[in-house]
Amino acid sequence: MSDGQYISVRETAQLLGITEKKVMDLIENRELQAYRIAGQFLRLNRTEVLNLRNSGTVAVEIEQIPYTFNEKVQDFFYYNDFYLVSLTLIMALVLYIYYA
User: Fold this and answer.
1) Interacting residues of 56 by C-beta distance below 8 A, sequence separation 6+
2) Which of 28, 31, 37 is nearest to 5 (CA)?
3) Fewer CB atoms inside 10 Å of the end CB: C or N, the chain?
4) What 8-state DSSP symbol labels residue 5?
């Protein structure tokens, strides 16, 4: 197996311009041949993927879901909650020390 000959499902999805679920559907429908490396990692042959892309039988999924402002705010608090709580606690301790 040469370097770069086999690619992951994610790389396949990016090459074809479709979702990873659509790639898995193509594998299940036997439109793409998948290989298990070490019985664990699912890989696809790059030339087979490029041949499928060049054949034009797979429609590119252009639809992109917008990332709304509310989702951005929710993600900010979700991923930074530890830092926000820590900052609040430090500020409370500093105020307590200053005024005590």
Assistant:
1) none
2) 37
3) C
4) S
